């Protein structure tokens, strides 16, 4: 089979290593989301005090980054599960 014969919609039976890692450690991106939420709450409290506003800004940056990582991980897990279900029903 040549590369021109490959179907781009064909899903191989093996899982990509990154997808495997994300699925095996699903708790990891959930933890990132929780850390992000906690950072947002603490950062919000820091904004109440003038001396802590800079730290509050950094907590907002850390919080949004953690929530982004958590959300991207969830997307990969859902996509992988959906492809496996489709493969199983085909």
How many strands, what sense, and barrel or not for the largest sheet?
Answer: none
Mean pLDDT: 79
Q: What structural class do you assign from the helix and strand content? A: mainly alpha
Uncertain regions spanning at least 5 consecutive residues: none
Please tally the helical runs, counting DSSP H or I stretches of 4 or more residues: 3
Structure, explained:
The chain has 3 helices and no strands. It has 90 residues and is mostly helical. α1 packs across α2 and α2 runs antiparallel to α3. The protein is rod-shaped and about 60 Å long. 11% of the residues are buried. The model has no long low-confidence stretch (mean pLDDT 79).
Give a brief rundown of this model.
Helices cover 73% and strands 0% of the residues.
Name the descriptors.
90 residues, mainly alpha, 73% helix, rod-shaped
What's the structural blueprint in terms of helices and strands?
Elements: H1 17-24, H2 26-46, H3 53-89
Helix pairs in contact: 1-2, 2-3
């Amino acid at each position: 089979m040549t590369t021109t014969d490959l179907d781009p919609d064909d899903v191989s039976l093996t899982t990509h290593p990154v997808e495997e890692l994300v699925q095996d450690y699903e708790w990891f991106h959930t933890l990132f989301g929780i850390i992000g939420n906690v950072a947002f709450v603490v950062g919000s409290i820091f904004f109440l005090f003038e001396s802590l506003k800079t730290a509050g800004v950094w907590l907002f940056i850390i919080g949004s980054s953690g929530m982004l990582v958590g959300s991207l991980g969830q997307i990969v897990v859902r996509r992988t599960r959906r492809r496996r279900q489709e493969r199983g029903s085909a």
